[in-house]
Design a protein that fits this description.
Layout: H1 4-25, E1 28-34, H2 52-60, E2 62-64, E3 67-68, H3 73-82, H4 86-89, H5 111-117, E4 121-127, E5 146-150, E6 162-163, E7 166-167, E8 170-171, E9 174-175, H6 182-195, E10 203-208, H7 220-225, H8 243-250, H9 256-279, E11 286-292, H10 318-321, E12 322-323, E13 325-328, E14 337-339, E15 343-344, H11 348-356, H12 372-377, E16 387-391, E17 398-404, E18 408-416, E19 421-429, H13 445-459, H14 483-486, H15 504-514, E20 524-526, E21 534-536
Parallel strand pairs: 1-10, 1-11, 2-14, 3-15, 4-5, 4-10
Antiparallel strand pairs: 2-13, 3-12, 5-8, 6-7, 8-9, 11-13, 16-17, 17-18, 18-19, 20-21
C-alpha cells in the first residue's frame, strides 16, 4: 500500500499538473475596440479604406452580423466590462466628462476580475473612459494588472496627449510622455506586453483605441495616401444630416481623407498585435474580438460612413447601434463564418467567460446572455426580451431611445422643454426592413404604446445622479495639470460609499416618490405590485 504522505504528494502533483495543463488549454483573450468607425468603413463591407487587419479577423473567424452596442462611448464600455445594462449603472445618457466625478460603482464586478481570479494575466492598453476622479474607478482597481494609456477621450493622436490642458498618458498611475503616433504607441505596447508575458499563464488583453474619434490627426504619409479619396456620402436620414449645413457655413472641408488615414493607422497597429500572436505561436488558441464602441460618427466633422444603415453615433437608428464586429478563434471557429443571432455588448462578458471556461464572479445579476453556442456552433439563439438603448447626446433634454426584438423596433426621439415634451415615434419591422425606410408607427398604435411603456419602465432604473449631457464644465472649473496625479487615492477616501442626504429609513419612500425621476437607491427596480416601491438586485 502506498504510504499516506506519498499518496498526498502524488495527488498534489497531479492537481498541479492538471491545473498547468488546463491553464495552457485555456484560450488567450484579445479585445480590440475602435472608437466611432462606421459600418461601411471596413474592407469586408466593401469600404474604401485599407483595413487588412480587421478583414483578417473577419475572414479567419466569424462576422458578428447583428452585434449591438449603445450609441455612445462610456455606456458601451461599462456594459462590456460588467455584462450589465448601463441604465442600471448610471452611465447611459452621456459619457464620463472630465469635469465629473462619476464612474462605475466599485461594487460592480468587472470582467477582467473574473479572468484574473482564474489565473489570467490582465492588461488594458488604450482608452479607459469609465471614471477618473477617485482611485476606486482606476483600471488597476478593476482587474487590470497593467494599464498603459488614457483615462479620458480626445487626448489627441500626438504629444502632449492632453485633456482640457492636463496631461493624460500613464502607466499604472505614473505619468509618461511618449513620443510618436498614439495608435502606433498602443500597438507597440500591446506587442511588448504579449512578448514579455508569463508564458505559463493565459492572458486577457483589452485594447480600446481612441481612433477614429475626433479631433482627427494622422501621420503625413497616411494623409497623402488618401488625399484623393472620394466621399459620395448618402444621407443618413437622421439629424446628423443637419450638421452639414453648419459645416458649409464654417468652411469645414471633406474630412474623409483624415478619417481614412486615422482608420488605416489603427488597422496597422492591430496588425502589429496580430503579427506578434503569430510569432509567439499563439494565434490558434487566442480569441480575438473586434468591434466599434458605437456606430460611425456621420456628422459633418466625423468622417464615418454607415450606409446602408440609417443614422449614426448618438442615435438609436441602426447606424448608431448596429456595429462592425468580428471574432476569431482558429481552434474552434471555422473561417468565414457569419453569425446571424442578435448579440449585444452586454453578452460579451458571459460569452467570453463561457468560451474560456472562466467562472463569472459577479454578485449582481448579469443582463447579458451566454452566446457561446451561437459563436462556436453557429446555433441560432433567438432574442427572448427587448433590447433597449438610449442617448442624450449632444443636446441636454433631447433623447434618442429604442426598444426592439426579433421583429419590431421602436425609435423614440424626445425633445424636452420647460412646459412640454415632444415625442416622435418611428416603428420599423426590423426583420423585413433592416435599413429602416418605412415608419409604421401610425399603422400599429398598440405596438407603439407597448414598446413605449417598456422604454419608460427601463428608464426608471436610472440613478438620479447618473451621467447627463453636459458639454461644458461648471463655470470657472479648471482641469488638473496632470490627470494621473489628480485622482483621489484610496487612503484618502472612506472605505464605504457615501450615504447621501436622506436618512436610511426615508430612502425607500423617497425612491418611490422619484418615480420617473430615477433611483436614489442603487440598482433598485420599482415594482408595480409594490405600488412603486423597489426591490434591490443584490
Amino acid at each position: 500500500m502506498m504510504k499516506p504522505i506519498r499518496l498526498f504528494l502524488l495527488t498534489l502533483l497531479t492537481a498541479l499538473l492538471n491545473s498547468f495543463a488546463h491553464a495552457n488549454d485555456q484560450p488567450n483573450i484579445v479585445i480590440m475596440v475602435a472608437d466611432d468607425i462606421g459600418w461601411a468603413d471596413v474592407g469586408y463591407h466593401g469600404g474604401q479604406i485599407d483595413t487588412p487587419s480587421i478583414d483578417r479577423i473577419a475572414n479567419e473567424g466569424a462576422q458578428l452580423d447583428r452585434f449591438y452596442t449603445t450609441p455612445i462611448c462610456s455606456p458601451t464600455r461599462a456594459a462590456l466590462m460588467t455584462g450589465r445594462d448601463p441604465m442600471r449603472l448610471g452611465i447611459a445618457y452621456s459619457v464620463v466628462m472630465p469635469w465629473t466625478n462619476l464612474g462605475v460603482h466599485p461594487d460592480e464586478h468587472f470582467m477582467p476580475q473574473s479572468f484574473q481570479a482564474a489565473g489570467y494575466q490582465t492588461a488594458l492598453v488604450g482608452k479607459w473612459h469609465l471614471g477618473h476622479a477617485q482611485e476606486t474607478y482606476h483600471p488597476n482597481q478593476r482587474g487590470f494588472e497593467h494599464f498603459y494609456g488614457h483615462l479620458h477621450t480626445e487626448t489627441g493622436y500626438f504629444p502632449p496627449f492632453g485633456v482640457q490642458g492636463g496631461k493624460d498618458f500613464q502607466i499604472n498611475g505614473e505619468t509618461i510622455e511618449p513620443e510618436g503616433y498614439e495608435s502606433f504607441l498602443l500597438g507597440d505596447e500591446a506587442s511588448r506586453w504579449i512578448e514579455e508575458r508569463d508564458k505559463n499563464k493565459p492572458f486577457f488583453l483589452y485594447m480600446p483605441f481612441i481612433a477614429p474619434h475626433t479631433p482627427l490627426e494622422a501621420p503625413q504619409d497616411l494623409i497623402d495616401k488618401y488625399s484623393d479619396i472620394e466621399f459620395e456620402r448618402e444621407p443618413s436620414r437622421s439629424a446628423s444630416d443637419e450638421t452639414y449645413k453648419f459645416s458649409k457655413i464654417l468652411g469645414v472641408t471633406n474630412v474623409r481623407t483624415m478619417f481614412s488615414a486615422v482608420v488605416d493607422g489603427m488597422d496597422q497597429a492591430m496588425g502589429k498585435v496580430l503579427d506578434t500572436l503569430d510569432r509567439e505561436g499563439l494565434t490558434e488558441n487566442t480569441i480575438v474580438m473586434f468591434f466599434s464602441d458605437n456606430g460611425g460618427a456621420v456628422y459633418s466633422v466625423g468622417g464615418a460612413y454607415n450606409a446602408p444603415l440609417r443614422g449614426g453615433k448618438g442615435e438609436t437608428f441602426e447606424g448608431g447601434i448596429r456595429v462592425v464586429s468580428a471574432l476569431r478563434w482558429p481552434a474552434k471557429i471555422p473561417a468565414g463564418s457569419k453569425i446571424d443571432s442578435i448579440i449585444s455588448i452586454m453578452d460579451v462578458f458571459p460569452t467570453l467567460s463561457a468560451l474560456a471556461g472562466v467562472e463569472p464572479l459577479n454578485r449582481r445579476k448579469l443582463d447579458g446572455r451566454n452566446m457561446a453556442p451561437a459563436v462556436v456552433e453557429n446555433q441560432y439563439i433567438p432574442l427572448r426580451k427587448n433590447l433597449m438603448f438610449g442617448s442624450e447626446t449632444p443636446i441636454k433634454g433631447q433623447f434618442s431611445l429604442t426598444a426592439f426584438n426579433e421583429e419590431w423596433k421602436l425609435v423614440q426621439e424626445i425633445k424636452q422643454g420647460f412646459l412640454s415634451a415632444d415625442v416622435t415615434n418611428y416603428l420599423f419591422n426590423i426583420k423585413e426592413d433592416p435599413n429602416e425606410w418605412n415608419n409604421l408607427a401610425s399603422e400599429h398604435p398598440r405596438l407603439v404604446a407597448s414598446l413605449s411603456k417598456a422604454i419608460r419602465d427601463w428608464r426608471m432604473l436610472y440613478p438620479v445622479n447618473g451621467t447627463r449631457s453636459n458639454l461644458v464644465p461648471p463655470p470657472g472649473w479648471r482641469a488638473p495639470l496632470d490627470w494621473a496625479k489628480s485622482m483621489r487615492k484610496l487612503d484618502e477616501l472612506n472605505t464605504v460609499p457615501a450615504r447621501g442626504m436622506p436618512p436610511e429609513f426615508a430612502k425607500r419612500p423617497l425612491d418611490m416618490m422619484h418615480g420617473e425621476g430615477g433611483r436614489i437607491i442603487y440598482d433598485c427596480e420599482p415594482k408595480w405590485w409594490l405600488a412603486g416601491w423597489c426591490l434591490k438586485n443584490d
